[in-house]
Amino acid sequence: MSINLNAHAFAGNPIRSKTPKAHDPLSPSSAFQSLKTHLLQNPETTSLPPPPKSPLFKVLPFRKGRPLASSSITGNNDDDVPSWHLGWISLTDCKYFLGKCGVDLTEDSLVYLGSKVEDDVVYWAVDVSGESILVPELGNKHFCFVDLRTLMVATDWSDSIAMGELAIAGHARALLEWHNLSRFCGHCGEKTIPKEAGRRKQCSNESCKKRIYPRVDPVVIMLVIDRENDRALLGRQSRFVPRMWSCLAGFIEPGESLEEAVRRETYEEAGIEVGEVVYHSSQPWPVGPSSIPCQLMVGFFAYAKSLEINVDKEELEDAQWHSREDVRKALAVAEYKKAQKTTAAKVDQMCKGVEKGQSLSADFNVESGELAPMFFPGPFAIAHHLISTWANQDVLEAGSKQPSSSILNL
Known about the structure:
This protein is α+β, with helices and mostly antiparallel strands. The longest helix is centred in the middle third of the chain and has 22 residues, at about 160-180. Helices cover about 25% and strands about 25% of the residues.
């Protein structure tokens, strides 16, 4: 199964590729000053001209970690699949909607996400979790707050624009969750205030003024391979749906290198000793719990020095060696594209006011006719690419049994 990707899901953010210089109108500092001027204007006096050299502002509301989204179908055929889009609204509309809730939109409510020079647009995010009245207001316009995991599954990974919007949503969720977690200074306990258009925070205590930056939580994720390069070690957690297997993973501890974390986690979870560790790729992962705003998954191939498995039941439900042939068969029958299309259709229904509140979990193990004996996370996860890269690596580099660490398009 060949899946071509320019970048992992949540990577390749098109509005973060380059931060403008401070004097540029699209830079965080310049845009923030223009934002304050816009917010001071009377919303009923819409004829007032914008500040000189002021860019266009677009705002993405979030509610309880869920971005605002819409959905559309571009074709006219009955079998055309809908595609979701981020629910950007103008600054004026954002002010209006919040004003109807009795809330004054301030510059400190908005978080700078990035800009597009070619369109002269600056993008912002705002958390409206406390404003429940917004749900029916925006729903009347066929907008809906959709869980980021659902959007992740519904994203067509062959569509670079859709993948870019997913990356923007992931970045925004991570920043907003971090803002919610860092409301008080960890040093003195006083309130913190946003700085640099929400890109950092600072303690309000004049005798402290501690600077606080967004946190990133690094996680190693590894496909453990036997000495003959014929089998891969895959694990199951108790929260997994039946027959789903994936790579081992774990958080990096202070004072530990990435390679050391791979070896330690593999031994702790499965009792397998690891020797050589080879880097594959990394992936932002902003869909974890809100207490961990943004994980960075760092992927590796790890080569086992021992084969006997001793599972730590507190960490894993099970771990087993799987042959390359069995892994390849499982990849071949899993209908990832079908799951993506099904979830995209459900998002479309949600945005139209249908099936709100329905659980949108997608099952990737449905084969036409029968269920596959095992399956793996879909193409949105780095685990999928570690597994598929190894499974489809038929011709190894001369004199080496290591899979190439540069392959991302399998």
